[in-house]
Design brief:
By secondary structure, the protein is an alpha/beta fold. It has a single domain, classed as PAC-like subunit (Rossmann fold). Helix content is 32%, strand content 24%. The protein contains 5 helices and 10 strands. An 8-stranded mixed beta sheet has the order 1-3-6-7-2-8-10-9, with helices on both faces. Strand 4 and strand 5 form a beta hairpin.
Length: 238
């Protein structure tokens, strides 16, 4: 089955030939989404393409005085970054992401790097992340020794859809799944992903703001927990 016509990438003649496409989504800890958003903010990127489909979210905003659409591709040197500001409707995800995969392959993307979150309660060692790659992907550099996701652990959502489809297409793709809090946004997990990506692909991004954000959230949570643990007796009257 072909999904090519469901998603359109504008301008139609835009080329992504030889680019490495990075993307992430609103999953556990919002790890993928915040990784992508942070990269777009910190790298000197330029918007290359707008991604559209017939059920696109009716949302628009301004960024640097220019209309910013929900689904955009930015480029920096040999890197392309696909930012999904508004999650795709659940019943449209399969069709959207398969069509998107067809389109980027057609436009010449050479490999895809996906970022997601992995429930930190499942961690069994000191690993900060696990990886899952298609058969066509050749591990290299710092990821050549990375631990794979354990057998039979389940990946869901856009990352799973894309990995499955790229496996079918015999296309090189990998997912980095950073251990993250399943209960809240986790900037620390995003910092792990950004740091790994920067080392892997050779660009520089300071993750200090992400780590400081994580420390602020963790301090607030610790304070709330402490207050909940110490509750004065309610049966004493003065």
């Amino acid at each position: 089955m072909s999904y090519k016509s469901y998603v359109s990438i504008y301008p139609k003649n835009a080329s992504l030939k030889g680019k490495i496409l990075i993307s992430g989504f609103h999953g556990i800890g919002a790890t993928g989404y915040w990784t992508v958003k942070y990269l777009v903010q910190k790298l000197p990127v330029k918007r290359c393409c707008i991604v559209d489909y017939e059920d696109s979210a009716p949302v628009s905003t301004l960024l640097n005085g220019m209309i910013s659409t929900p689904y955009e591709i930015f480029v920096y040197e040999n890197i392309a970054i696909f930012k999904v500001d508004v999650p795709i409707q659940k019943d449209k995800e399969l069709k959207f992401y398969r069509s998107f995969a067809d389109q980027i392959i057609k436009k010449g993307v050479k490999e895809v790097f996906l970022v997601g979150g992995l429930d930190s309660t499942l961690r069994t060692d000191d690993s900060r992340y696990r990886i899952a790659a298609t058969s066509a992907y050749k591990l290299r550099g710092i990821l050549s020794e990375a631990k794979p996701l354990e057998d039979e652990h389940i990946i869901v959502g856009p990352v799973a859809i894309l990995l499955n489809y790229f496996e079918i297409k015999n296309f090189p793709a990998i997912a980095l799944l950073a251990y993250a809090s399943p209960d809240r946004v986790d900037p620390r997990a995003a910092s792990v992903a950004v740091e790994t990506l920067s080392k892997y692909y050779g660009f520089e991004v300071d993750v200090t703001p992400l780590i400081k954000g994580a420390e602020t959230i963790e301090a607030e949570l610790a304070k709330e927990t402490s207050q909940q643990e110490f509750k004065p007796p309610t049966n004493i009257y003065t």
